[in-house]
């Protein structure tokens, strides 16, 4: 309502409302999101407080609670900018180059695109079914699924399922969830005796669920924190994933420097005319 009032005021004063269209609307993920944690680390969106560096995302940034909401929000707002998993990218938004390099699996592989993070798993259960599923995830059978989904597979082991029965609960990152759904479908083809329940939330919630034994496997789309590594959970890398900085398709911006992205999300740069 306040924004509409300002636009009306500009028009009444004989000023073009297009002046306001240059404002940047940064969109961030919620605290606890692994994607946010990885983004903040990679782009150094931090400030020094005592001996620690903490998340310095601008309080003016709109917060979304999932990858899907992030994409929809940017797609519907001409001046919005956000960030998502490269594997989640679709044609409703535009991914910008970072320091002149296009975000792609090929460029992550050849290390020219440096904006990427691991998709991690944290495991609380040690039973035949969980171990069989983890072996499948690290096998040649899952490699094509991972790569087709737009991620980078790092394993290529031979696999033959022992077909154990039971139920696995997998919880955590909304960025990893779509890939995990595909792996679940693939695993069911080789082991129809298994039931896999996937609970989408965020990385921190997933980790806590695994620590509390509510989930057998946590999906974590960032690096593990020291206290999480000391929790006794077994860890495994699922895949590597590029992060894509996204803007509305009508935005003329095609490339941004890492420094500009940092300044946008800390609130230092607030209009597109200042972007490099």
TrEMBL record:
Keywords: Signal. Residues 1-21 form the signal peptide. Residues 21-139, 160-274 form the PBP domain. The keyword Signal applies. InterPro entries: PBP_domain, Phosphate_ABC_transporter. Coiled coil: none annotated. It comes from the Bacteria. This is Substrate-binding domain-containing protein. It comes from Campylobacter vicugnae.
